[in-house]
Amino acid sequence: MNKSKDNFFIGRLKSIKYAAKGGWLLLTTEHSIIVQTIIAIIMTLVGFMFNISTTEWLFQIIAIALVITAESANTAIEYLCDFIHPEYNKKIGFIKDISAGIPFIAAIFAVIIGLIIYIPKFM
Q1: Distance CA 78, CA 99 (A)
Q2: Residues 46-102: pLDDT tens digits?
Q3: Is 96 part of any known ligand binding site?
Q4: Helices H, strands E: what count in the chain?
Q5: Is residue 82 marked as binding?
């Protein structure tokens, strides 16, 4: 194997290591991510209880992933804003409010998906 391929492979391994570390930090330190993960676990159990279809599973998993990803992006943006401008700033506040809207919108669509999947199960 040549050196550039070795460097490429080592670089990818390092990227995976950093990504896993970031995921672990989110799951163990960020309350919003912990809450979303608990909700994801509950909804997964509910999916098994109601024996949802493969298609319903796909939509549920995508909705869960969307919410957790959006919450993670919001967390990163808020930390970046706080690092750049620690004291209150109107423009930074505006950015953080917009950032908070990301998981809010994702959660609205996740709830809609959940209602579409589970309301018929109760009828």
Answers
A1: 7
A2: 999 999 999 999 999 999 999 999 999 999 999 999 999 999 999 999 999 999 999
A3: yes
A4: 4, 0
A5: no
Catalytic residue among 56, 66, 71, 72: 71
For the chain, state the CA radius of gyration. 19
Please give the Cα distance from 74 to 85 (Å, whole number).
16
78 is in an annotated binding site: yes
**Structurally, what CATH architecture does the domain formed by 31-122 represent?**
Orthogonal Bundle (1.10)
pTM recorded for the entire structure: 0.86
The answer to whether 68 touches 34, Cβ cutoff 8 Å, is no
- Which residue is it, tokens 């997964």? 44
- Catalytic residue flag (residue 87): no
Q: Do the Cβ atoms of 122 and 104 come closer than 8 Å?
A: no
**What angle in degrees, to the nearest 10, is found between the helix axes of 54-84 and 90-122?**
170
For residues 123 and 120, give the distance between their C-alpha atoms in angstroms, rounded to a whole number: 5
Helix (H/G/I), strand (E/B), else coil: 58 = helix
Helix (H) or strand (E) holding 120: helix 90-122
Look up residue 50 and give its DSSP letter. T
**Per this entry, what is the length of the chain?**
123
